[in-house]
Amino acid sequence: MHALEQLNNLFRSATLEYSEGKFGKVLDTLAPLLHSSEAHPEVLNLAAVCLRRLNRYDEAERYLRSVIAAHPAHVDARCNLGNLLRDRHRIAEAEIEYGQALAIRPDHCKTLENLALLLEHDNRLAGAETILQQCLAIDSTNARIWNRLGDAQNTLGKCAEAEHAYRQADAIDPDNAKVLCDRGILFNQLHRTTEAKAAFERALRLSPDDLRGQIGLAVALHMSRQLIPAEAAYRKILERDPEESTALNNLSAILLDAGLLDEGMSLSERAVASAPDAALTHASLAYTLNFLSEDPQTVLHECRRWAQQHENPLLGQHRPHGNNRDPGRRLRIGYVSPDFSGHCQSLFMVPVLSNHDHDRFEIWCYSSVATPDAMTQRLADYVDVWRPVRQLSDERLAEQIREDQIDILVDLTMHMRDGRSTMFARKPAPVQVAWLAYPGTTGMRSIDYRITDPYIDPPGTDDRYAERSVRLPDTFWCYNPQSREKVQPLPALSAGHVTLGSLNNPCKLSDRTLRMWAGVMERVENARLLLLSRTLPPHDGLIGRLRSNGIDLRRVDFVPHQGRESYLQTYNRIDIALDTFPYNGHTTSLDALWMGVPVVTRAGPTVVGRAGLSLLSNLDLTGFVAHSDEAFVDIAVDLANDLPRLAQLRTTLRARMEMSPLMDGVRFTRNLEAAYRAMWREWCSIGDNDRV
């Protein structure tokens, strides 16, 4: 056999072994050829690729450089050297090799693809997008490249372009589960859950064990409020992988909303343990603690733990701020939220945004709303600058806010869903404030102040928070009900019995709450209890908890989640609203009062457990505030036995609300602006000073 024929036979054998993933076997096959002083460049190139796959980087690099030294125009060797250097995080060197390969062959798709991969890994997505588009100009039939282009465009916030790219990939390769999953993820992000479910179902028909498909379908079911099948889907995922963090976190949310507090909390803790670097997952745990803990220090400890894990690594990104230090100038205020929409947050933002003094304050909003609606437009009309930023990463959003030279940046979400805490951790504004999401703490050094009031935070409570507390004179909340739904006569007069009610999220129904309610029902003959449930019938776990805490289920009725007008009409069925503990009702209590329904509340040691006290103090109705479980029962029972007083409250509560600080938008906003001005003056006097 001639030497050339032997070489060809060995090379063919090695190429077949490479296609089968037998990289060590390839090296054995090529060994006789590698030791030759005149080893063929293709032999060295193939050996180098195998060595790289086996993490033998130094040998691989030596072979590739020897090929390039002898054959400078060897494009594949230059591309493979670029891949090796990229693997070793020698980004600048890798980029040079790709560039030299493309200088020789500008249409070399393999090099273009790998250069795009380098740019993606280096977070230069705009550059990756351009390179991938060059690939498609050469070969528009490559489904993989279309899909990667969709991924890059999705991350860049170019949702329409990403959708087009994914559709192209699907048209070329309709049996590709990855393409379908990526499309489904985009549809979930856009809240187009019907299309998302269809994409994931197709993917799972092709690849039933695809974990991304299973998670994506569960998320789509969850987002579309199909909670029973969503729960089943998450549980099935956890049977396969008990530590899958997304399934743990999302199942936790479903169970908490169903009223299964202990299991929901346990799952949230497991989710954090399984994904300690997932900031939003940990934020969910930090927020959830507020529903269960009666110790403010426990909540502060978890929030500080969040900050240690997720804020501290970003403190090095803090830079001095060049904002004009004139204490009396017009200030630029930035509000950040994913809920500038028909979300209940609008009930509190309309009074503020519609009453800001634009001569003294320039108002900016950074909106991460997934599905803008009529309320989104209404809020946008109140402000000077409106920025849709949902598709911006926290890093990019922080840079945008710094470029906008915002003076005071207000976090309206904190550790709730879709919060931007890791953006605030980068300190893009000189003064940063937490307000409205819930009265509490972020645990963060990067948040300077928290807005509160004298009732939820009496003197002596400042050590419960990482931020400095700024107490507005009257109230934490200013309310606009966004409805003129009529108050109907007291239902007990026609029903022949008193109806107690709570339309709070079942996640607030602690065992202590249920025991207090049971005590009321035991003493009020024939009273009925009306509750909200996310599903009808309610979750078996909630039914079990009601029964075990002494509530007669024959006297309980449930209503589902409803649109705002139907929800407000439900208060026409309720005589007395029973508050929850340790997390009081906030919006729900205001809604009840607006609809003429008195709220009996239990005040506690935590800030979220003093909301009822604050609201009722502003209405001069502190007689409905209990400071013990026994007092709660006594107050509710006395009120239930006094139908004339209930009827009088029914006809006067709305007017009392309208005349109170709770609905005086001008007064509230002037007080808020005064707080902002005081914060600004302090920054002007001391400058940037990260708190330790």
TrEMBL record:
Species this chain originates from: Caballeronia insecticola
The keyword Ion transport is annotated on this UniProt entry: no
The name this protein goes by in its record: protein O-GlcNAc transferase
EC number: 2.4.1.255
Similarity-based family: Belongs to the glycosyltransferase 41 family. O-GlcNAc transferase subfamily.
Coiled coil: none
Alphabetized UniProt keyword annotations: Glycosyltransferase, Repeat, TPR repeat, Transferase
UniProt pathway: Protein modification; protein glycosylation
Keyword Repeat: yes
Family annotation (InterPro entries): Armadillo, Glycosyltr_41/O-GlcNAc_trsf, OGT/SEC/SPY_C, TPR-like_helical_dom_sf, TPR_rpt
Domain O-GlcNAc transferase C-terminal, chain residue ranges per copy: 325-478, 501-672
Enzyme class: transferase
Entry superkingdom: Bacteria
SMART domains in UniProt: TPR
